[in-house]
Specification:
The structure is a single chain. By secondary structure, the chain is an alpha/beta fold. 47% of the residues lie in helices and 11% in strands. The protein is built from eleven helices and five strands; from the N terminus they run H-H-H-H-E-H-E-H-E-H-E-E-H-H-H-H. Strands 1-3-2-4-5 form a five-stranded mixed beta sheet, with helices on one face. Helix 3 packs antiparallel against helix 8, helix 4 crosses helix 6 and helix 7 (130-136) crosses helix 10. The longest helix is centred in the C-terminal third of the chain and has 33 residues, at 224-256.
Length: 270
C-alpha cells in the first residue's frame, strides 16, 4: 500500500480512534505495530522497550525504598502522590514465568511516559531483593498501587493507601497494566491493611519491619529436611517424656507394694 493512498484516510482514522477508550486504543496500536514488524525484529523491539523502562522506572531496594517512596511535594493540596510498583522475579521467586509479564510492563512504561497524569513507576526484582520482598510480604508478579499522603496543615498525615493488583503470567498485556491507571482498575481491589502494612502497620511503626523481613527470609530458606529433623527430634523427646513418666508411675507403685504376701492392713484377708 502506497503512502499517498493512506494519507487521506488519517483524519478519519484519528476521529474514529478518539471515540474509543484509551485502553482499547493502546491495545489496537500495539497489535497494529506488531503486525507490521517481522518476527525476527521482536527481540530488538523488546530490548528497546526494556531500555526505555529502565530510564523511566526507579529500581527499589531494601536500602532505598524508604527514601524513594516519599511525596515529592509538601503542598497538602497537591497530594496524594501515586506510585505503581511492579514486583517481578526470575527462576527462584517467579519460577521462570515472569518473562511475558516483564515485556508487557516494559511496553506499558513507554505508553505511560507520555501521560502527564501517570503515576510514578518503580520496579523490584524479588530474586535480587529477597529481603525487601519478604519485608513487604510481596510476591511476583504483582503491581502495588500506592497513594502516598502529604502532611496536612495541622501536621497530621493520612494513611497510605495500598491496593495490590495481581497479573496473569500468560495473559497480562501492556493495555491491562496501563488501565490500572487510566481506568483505575486498582479500585476494584481491596485496600491493603493489617500489621504488615509497610507504612502504617504496627510492625512498621515499632521499627520491626526489617528484622521481620530477615526472619521470614531465613525461615523460607531453611531446607525441608532440616524441618523434618527438628520435628523428629521433638516428637522423640515428647514420647520419651511420656514413656518415662509412665514407667516412673509403675516403679512408684512397685515400691509402695508390701514385700510379703499379706494384703495391706486396710484390705480384708481372704
Amino acid at each position: 500500500m502506497r503512502l499517498t493512498a493512506v494519507l487521506p484516510l488519517l483524519p478519519l482514522t484519528i476521529a474514529a480512534q478518539q471515540q474509543k477508550p484509551l485502553g482499547e486504543n493502546i491495545q489496537s496500536w500495539l497489535d497494529k505495530a506488531k503486525s507490521y514488524i517481522p518476527n525476527a525484529a521482536s527481540a530488538p523491539i523488546a530490548s528497546t522497550a526494556a531500555k526505555a523502562a529502565s530510564s523511566n522506572v526507579v529500581h527499589l531496594t531494601n536500602n532505598n525504598w524508604k527514601e524513594t517512596l516519599t511525596p515529592s511535594t509538601s503542598d497538602p493540596f497537591e497530594g496524594p502522590e501515586s506510585w505503581m510498583v511492579f514486583f517481578s522475579g526470575g527462576n527462584k521467586t517467579c519460577y521462570g514465568r515472569c518473562t511475558g509479564v516483564e515485556q508487557a510492563w516494559n511496553e506499558s512504561v513507554a505508553l505511560l511516559a507520555v501521560d502527564p497524569s501517570a503515576p510514578k513507576l518503580a520496579y523490584v526484582n524479588c530474586d535480587k531483593e529477597p529481603i525487601f520482598c519478604a519485608t513487604w510480604a510481596a510476591g511476583p508478579p504483582t503491581i502495588w498501587h500506592i497513594e502516598l499522603p502529604v502532611t496536612q496543615a495541622d501536621q497530621s498525615t493520612p494513611a497510605t493507601t495500598i491496593r495490590i493488583v495481581g497479573l496473569n503470567t500468560t495473559t497480562a498485556t501492556a493495555a491491562d497494566i496501563v488501565e490500572i491507571h487510566t481506568k483505575k482498575t486498582y479500585e476494584q481491589r481491596p485496600v491493603y491493611e493489617g500489621a504488615l502494612h509497610p507504612f502504617d502497620g504496627w510492625v512498621a511503626q515499632y521499627g520491626l519491619l526489617t528484622p521481620l523481613g530477615y526472619t521470614l527470609y531465613g525461615f523460607a530458606n531453611i531446607p525441608s529436611w532440616a524441618f523434618m529433623i527438628v520435628v523428629s527430634m521433638g516428637s522423640r523427646y515428647i514420647m520419651n517424656r511420656r514413656v518415662g513418666g509412665a514407667q516412673g508411675e509403675v516403679n512408684q507403685a512397685q515400691r509402695s507394694a508390701p514385700l510379703g504376701g499379706a494384703p495391706p492392713a486396710n484390705e480384708p484377708a481372704t
